[in-house]
Amino acid sequence: MAISFYKYQGTGNDFVMVDNRKHTFPAEDEALVKSLCDRRTGVGADGLILLQDHPDYDFEMVYYNADGRLGSMCGNGARCTVRFARQLGVIEDVACFLAADGEHQANVERDLIQLKMTDVKDVEQIGEDYYLNTGSPHYVRFVDDVEALDVYEEGQAIRYNERFKEGGTNVNFVQRLSDNEIFVRTYERGVEDETLSCGTGVTACALVASLKGMQSPIKVKVMGGELQVAFESNGEGGFKYIYLIGPAKQVFSGSIAAQIV
Ligand SMILES: N[C@H](CCC[C@H](N)C(=O)O)C(=O)O
Known about the structure:
The protein has two domains: 2-115 and 248-257, Diaminopimelate Epimerase, Chain A, domain 1 (Roll), CATH 3.10.310; 124-246, Diaminopimelate Epimerase, Chain A, domain 1. With 261 residues, it is α+β, with helices and mostly antiparallel strands.
């Protein structure tokens, strides 16, 4: 059997994208998903996403981490899925779709996809750090020099901390660059390494930055480019009207024999 796929990337967070409207992809095959995401023996990606029909929405996105496991929300992957849906003719410039954490709205404006994120009820403070869920769980630590940091080592130490054993967490390191700009590097669970960008992580960091006095909209520099996060406080320690804005592009399309991977 041959699997047709598309490769997309959003600020360097890359995905194998499959049009699964006919339900032909064997998604329960964890080993297959993992091997498609392998950078040496497969296509290579941080995750795999299925675009599927849904009776109540324009489409549904189903996201798997590179380890083959069904994941939670993926902000960059969602922006890529919106671009993919538009290229397939499933939507025009506006989308209302379903993801792991519920309903999302999105707009396409030339190169940029503006994605509405789920409201955030609360932000937990852990010592000088923070922990919150923006569709996926994120630990956020502010540092003085994020470029000099060993994100793999330091991220892994927190990722496997006792506290997060059940399900684990993604780990973000943030540096404030100016009054309206931060620099974020993320260790992603499920990839078990640093990725060039993590959309739900960037969102989490911008929200925490506002608790430290910064105001919406916040520009976010990541290893793979630049994103923007806009939001409002809900007056009760949480946030609403959260938007993640940034580019999402198709890189190539292809087909691969399922028995190869
Ligand atoms: N890269 C994704 C996040 C994936 C989260 C996933 N690694 C997990 O929580 O297991 C993003 O752009 O939001």
